[in-house]
From TrEMBL:
Organism encoding this protein: Bradyrhizobium canariense
Protein name: Cysteine desulfurase
GO molecular function, one term: cysteine desulfurase activity
Cofactor(s) recorded in Swiss-Prot or TrEMBL: pyridoxal 5'-phosphate
Homology family: Belongs to the class-V pyridoxal-phosphate-dependent aminotransferase family. NifS/IscS subfamily.
Lineage summary: Bacteria, Pseudomonadati, Pseudomonadota, Alphaproteobacteria, Hyphomicrobiales
Amino acid sequence: MPSRVYLDWNATTPLRSEARGAMLAAYELIGNPSSVHAEGREARRLVEGARAILATAVGALPRNVVFTSTGTEANALALSPGLRGPSGGPVERLLVSAVEHASVLAGGRFPADEIGQIRVTRSGVIDLDHLKALLREGPPALVSIMAANNETGALQPIAETAGIVHGAGGLLHVDAIQALGKIPFDIKVIGADLATFSAHKIGGPKGVGALVVAEGVAGLEPVLRGGGQELNRRAGTENVAGIAGFGASVRAALQALPEDAERMATLRDRLENGIRSMAGATVFSDDARRLPNTVLFTAPGLKAETAVIGFDLEGVAVSSGSACSSGKVQPSHVLSAMGYDPTVAQGAVRLSLGWSTEPDDINRALEAWRKLGNTLLKG
């Protein structure tokens, strides 16, 4: 029986061997990283080592990295009224793009009436003119824009956005969870004030995330209060093994990034060409800059829920969009924001590649698609 093909890397990734090794070593330790004895100091060494790795990877200082339980928690921590930049007053409202992850659309700790939504184009890219208009309408704002969309893979013009936001006295938060390890990402280069990350998207363990804050940003208030961990920004004993695995996965992902990105882009293009061979197939955001590993497509009459099951029965794991929406039979809010009809949005299927994806995996996915397309599109 042939092995299964995994093409749902944007939902989660396999655990890298480097992360597994770091975690197993950490599980041998018995100390609490807040304890001052030798056992505690050894645990602290692992936490701070991982903090330094992530900080270096994204152009930050280690003291400005806050470890959290998930990317969702990191987003909630970042979306905080009262944040201040090096020059300017506190932000008083929140502006988010219409294609953000649900944890950002929820608004963090901002009141509902202080949250505005930024339109996107048909390609899924932020409408910068609309952003400018919204910034003119009120006091300084925290703007939250994801670097790369988890469904379409579309990349946002983060550096240009940062210039606009800073010119209006605001701050920019970037959800970089899908970007890290797939494209170069440096908060100083792009001008982000806050950025969020998640370990399990780059080969680390599930249950570990991080918020990175640029130097000079102040006013961050903890969501979890209690102990003084993470420099009083996130209470609770650190997940030492998970954090160690996070650091190891970051190091491995960045070392392999140039080669992996080029190889995945080649495989993605071949996958798209094969998908388009079926009459009427549409690949979303194909006219925008995208992640090298992501394909979101549909075809007339295709029902995503049925297609995902069909792919699964053929031994290929794919998704109908964000894994955070699993089990919800509803149109993609991303495609709806891009202006697509709900019937189109309900038929979108996502295939996402990773570092171990092979050409034969693409062959098997296309074989499954040809078989399913001939069957499902007649239903």
